[in-house]
Amino acid sequence: MAEIRVQNLHKAFAEFTAVKDSTFTVNDGEFFCLLGPSGCGKTTTLRMIAGLELPTSGEIYLGRENVTFKRASARDIAFVFQMFALYPHMTVRQNIAFPLVSQGMPRAEIRERVAQAAKTLHITAMLDQSVSGLTSGDRQRVALGRAIVRQPMAFMMDEPLGALDTEFREIMCAELRALHDRLSATTVYVTHDQREAMSMADKIAIMNQGVIEQLGAPQEIYERPATVFVADFMGSPSMNFIPTTAALARGETTLNIGTAKLPLSAVCDDVSTRSLLYGVRPEHVRLTDDSVFRAEVVGVEYLGNCQIITLNTAAGSTVRAKVDVGVHAARGDQVGLTFDAGEVTLFDQASGRAIPTARDDVPMSLVGTRVAAHG
Length: 375
Ligand SMILES: Nc1ncnc2c1ncn2[C@@H]1O[C@H](COP(=O)(O)OP(=O)(O)OP(=O)(O)O)[C@@H](O)[C@H]1O
Ligand SMILES: [Mg+2]
Prior knowledge:
Layout: E1 4-13, E2 16-26, E3 31-35, H1 42-50, E4 57-62, E5 65-66, E6 77-80, H2 92-103, H3 107-120, H4 136-148, E7 154-158, H5 166-183, E8 186-191, H6 194-200, E9 203-208, E10 211-216, H7 218-223, H8 228-233, E11 240-249, E12 252-257, E13 260-264, E14 275-280, E15 285-288, E16 294-302, E17 307-313, E18 318-323, E19 334-339, E20 344-348, H9 358-361, E21 372-373
Parallel strand pairs: 3-8, 3-9, 6-7, 7-8
Antiparallel strand pairs: 1-2, 1-4, 4-5, 9-10, 11-12, 11-14, 12-13, 13-21, 14-20, 15-19, 16-17, 16-19, 17-18
Helix pairs in contact: 2-3, 2-4
The protein binds adenosine-5'-triphosphate and magnesium ion (MG).
Magnesium ion (MG) is lined by residues 42-43, 158.
């Protein structure tokens, strides 16, 4: 197994740039997710690492070796696709053994390796069955078997669970992560599904239009999004963004949210006069009568273990709150809103970037004496 290092990777197709100046390191044994919407450059990045696509510029290292111009077959990387192309006329055993047979490996060793891969994937009992009769989940296990039997330095997986239905995908997610833990294999996993990435990854690179917007552990990305795009992409329902402005008067910065004015404790002088977004996740919004920040309930969605309340604020934004099922709210109710202390991110509206000191400096509660209502 090995570390993968990608440095200033760039890929242009004629006039169109699919990957822009991408730099990241996948540590030895790490499960690394490339996450982003359709067309953001995930597959192109993966194909360059695997050697199936030549970069326009930049470098790729596998371990200490610069493999940028090395052929795919010489890179010792196994690739697993969404559309697992198995040989339908062959048995499970023959399918898994195929890459080793092509290498000309001695038969006894092939037998041993196939048995080991099958055991790891819990498919020993079906080794002599034809693949044509298998379910899609079992077919994907066989495809994984064909990848792990090679014992490569790294795995590239491009939406390998995309063809499975939701319930089965969740089971396979857990299995894939368990498999990763058993093999400790350096893995780059591509997905557009944030839940898949959050549940499996050690580290996530979240991409947008060819650019990595943020790189970090799932929790770090969820709790401290670097941009509006990331904050919006991660989480369901996604973060609320309430337009606000900041004004500097007599040495004190104040946030204007609708009719509420909030003093901003120090440091954030540079935010004054800029248009900002006050970002708060639905689970950090509370309904209370004791707030000057007023809103009307326009929708209630009961989800069994929680409910999602949609509200229109007096200032004209829509806010969604994820609250306990015990909270009583009905369409048409007039309520006050507060936001959990320390759980708000301020974004600069023009650049879409989070303001670094925002978490410590934004007063979160709109309740009480710190807030003066106007109008
Ligand atoms: N060979 C090619 N020639 C021209 N454009 C290409 C080529 N391959 C990819 N692209 C373009 O580059 C962009 C990124 O493609 P890529 O396949 O990497 O996206 P992706 O993030 O994997 O998307 P998806 O989730 O839909 O698979 C897309 O706009 C795509 O149309
Ligand atoms: Mg793709």
